[in-house]
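Hi V.,

You were right to ask for the full record rather than a summary. Here it is.
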Amino acid sequence: MNSKERVFAAFKKGPGLPGTPAEGSPPDRVPFQFDLCKSLTEHFGKKLGITPKYTLSYYEDLTYRISANDIRTKMGSDCVVVGGQVAKNFTPQAVRDDIITNEFGMHMKPTSLYVEVVKCPLDGAESVEDVEAYAFPDPYAPGRTEDAKRDIDRFGKDYFVIGDCELSLFELAWHLTGLENYMVNMASEEDWIEALNDKVEYFTTGIAEQLVHAGVDAIWFGEDLGTQVSTLISPDMWRKIFRPRHERIIKKIRAINPNILVIMHSDGAVAPLLDDFIDMGIDIYNPVQPNVPGSDPKELKDKYGSRICFFGGLDQQRLMPEGDLKKIEADMRNRATILGKNGGYLMAPAHIIQADVTPETVEGVLGILKTL
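Predicted structure:
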């Protein structure tokens, strides 16, 4: 099997999808996907003699998710990830020191791990008029999928192509207003929150539709709906406000390609939403974050394994930064055996591999993968 066939086999898809194995064919091994932060991308690019190709996302933290596909495939990933990029005519503007404004007008400050929003463009919003006066980026602006199309043409025959649309609804909306401001006004059922949600839904729908037209194999939505102990908002509130919006987007992209696979990403303890994800038509749940309630691999596989696939699972909060390869190997083998039984699993770290993980650990993980 090549990488594309391996991932499709793991996700139990076959007939009607060009270049994929027959229905029911098991993968020859558990497939693997990973993303690297900038420092690790630069390290491995230099080691491999490959100059990284960076695609600037409309939200900076997604840049490293959708960049350097030539490096990740050379290192052993079965997947490439592409996504929406900044409009062709947009140039980030400096605010002060190392802070810039992005396409949404957010003030962005780089840190050792992430790029943080330090000022939100709608932090003072109080009315529908305030939302309407805000100049929302055009999802169909020229250049949005230029790099995505390049990488699909280059890698799409041999590798599984994921189209990234993370920060889909809830998370993109609160990044525009600030979390506390958004949550308080959402709980108060302020009209301007729904007006903002409409604009966010339109933007994400536009990006997703263009990626499907470009030829991705899956669309990766993402929200980060959980904390280490529970969901951020009640499941009932999520069902009322956000589930219908996700369902509308899924319906629209499946009108373009009925075979498109849909991935839902949410960090944290979001097991109470898994039945909803399944009912909505989500095919794959990511990142299966370890060390939170509801994330036990056997319980997940036993309860949901016949209805949804899993993607992620490797502990990046403690295990990978600590770098104990014996413990990492035991965890990988456990997850491959349980979550990968009869297919249904794409192994991956639970997030972009950050700078607190050494290059030696990354190489060790990839070496273990070859023995699974």
